[in-house]
Amino acid sequence: MSTVLVTGGCGYIGSHTVVELLLRGDDVVVVDNLSNSSLESIKRVETITERVPHFIEVDILDRAELRCVFDKYRPDSVVHFAGLKAVGESVSKPLSYYQNNVAGTANLCEVMAEHGVFSLVFSSSATVYGDPETLPLREDAPLGATNPYGRSKLFVEEMLRDLQISDPRWRIALLRYFNPIGAHPSGMIGEDPRGIPNNLFPFITQVAVGRREKLAIFGDDYPTPDGTGVRDYIHVVDLALGHLKALDYLAEKEGILTCNLGTGQGYSVLDMVRSFERVNGVTIPYDIVPRRPGDIASCWADPSVAAEQLDWKATRSLDDMCTDGWRWQQQNHIGYLP
Ligand code: NAD
Ligand code: WQD
């Protein structure tokens, strides 16, 4: 059993990962500034797992507070989710993204090293591949983000590579997530975006539950089988389990690992709408509207490095994602709000 510090552990992917860590017996310390989440998610995690993680409201930009957390809880490793993630907002507020995502990670690493903690799992993103030249995407594909959010992830990846070269005690996993969707099968935790959802899946669930009138499909003239954008959607529980495998890997192996976490299978926007309608018996009204600036046509992973190095594969289907995501939305019409 070990103690894992989870930054951003109240958020969407973090809360699902905290559940799996607690269920396997690890002690968990969550730090989060609640800028994009609520403490209710941790209460729900406690109900699901019948265990209690430590929670400290801390901004990772506050080094003094972070030091106190490390002094008190002495974690063995860190899973680092905390950061900002809205692509559009990153264009209008780039400095917030570089502060929270890049400077925040530098702070965290400094405090980790001061406390002799050198094991880090970092949330990177398939967005670092930019517009792919070839598919499926392997980890050695050319990199090139197209917006400040993506660049902040790229910069952190480079910073962590430099850090590991400077001190070989560091053991780092850079996990490039594809498109996480769905929710815990209990329906108790899930994605709870503030305001109008930027992403496809929460938009669909909000249409289904009556919070939004219609889905706008951004373009049907892409070079894809039905003209709509194709992505590698991955169930958030599969993604969470990938983090446990990454921690196991770092306990055994030195160095830095860069690894895609995806299913290897692409689905279009229309595939998603039809699956959601079929498995849940609902109708999703939609309009086709012009392309969203900055969108790419298609993106899916080659997940073989994760299979070989982490012994991890996604096992949950698109139908599972639709069923579990809908259960969460039905049980929580307005998310975590009472
Ligand atoms: P989220 O917003 O639900 O979770 C992030 C959490 O970090 C939130 O609880 C937020 O309050 C917290 N946070 C933000 N800034 C902080 C700070 N300065 N100090 C302390 N806490 C802070 O997002 P998520 O979807 O769970 O994403 C988690 C990570 O995975 C992010 O780094 C994101 O960039 C990355 N990622 C997400 C996706 C996705 O589609 N959801 C895809 C690829 C990568
Ligand atoms: C999926 C498909 C849209 C909304 C974004 C970020 C990326 C990553 C995940 C963190 C596309 C279409 C969407 C809608 C639509 N985050 N769509 N109507 O664009 O792959 O990635 O989130 O790292 O950085 O860029 O995901 O869910 O927004 O879009 O038609 O209302 O759905 O055009 O084809 P995307 P998405």
Report on this model:
41% of the residues lie in helices and 17% in strands. The chain has a domain at 3-181 and 233-263 and 301-315: 3-Layer(aba) Sandwich (Rossmann fold), CATH 3.40.50.720. With 338 residues, it is an alpha/beta fold. The strands form 4 sheets. The chain has a 7-stranded parallel β-sheet with strand order 3-2-1-4-5-6-11, sandwiched between helices. Strands 7-10 form a two-stranded parallel ribbon. The chain has 11 helices and 13 strands. The chain is globular. Helix 1 (12-23) runs parallel beside helix 2, helix 5 (94-114) runs parallel beside helix 6 and helix 9 (269-280) packs across helix 11 (318-331). Residues 85, 87, 125, 127, 179, 198-200, 203, 216-218, 229, 231, 269, 292, 295 line the site of UDP-4-deoxy-4-formamido-beta-L-arabinopyranose.
- What is the CATH domain class of the domain at 3-181 and 233-263 and 301-315? Alpha Beta
Low-confidence stretches: none
Could you spell the SSE succession in H and E letters? EHEHEHEHHEHEEHEEEHEEHEHH
The fourth-level CATH homologous superfamily of the domain at 3-181 and 233-263 and 301-315 is NAD(P)-binding Rossmann-like Domain
Identify the bound ligands.
Answer: nicotinamide-adenine-dinucleotide, UDP-4-deoxy-4-formamido-beta-L-arabinopyranose
Question: Which structural class is indicated by helix and strand composition?
Answer: alpha/beta
Helical content class:
40-55%
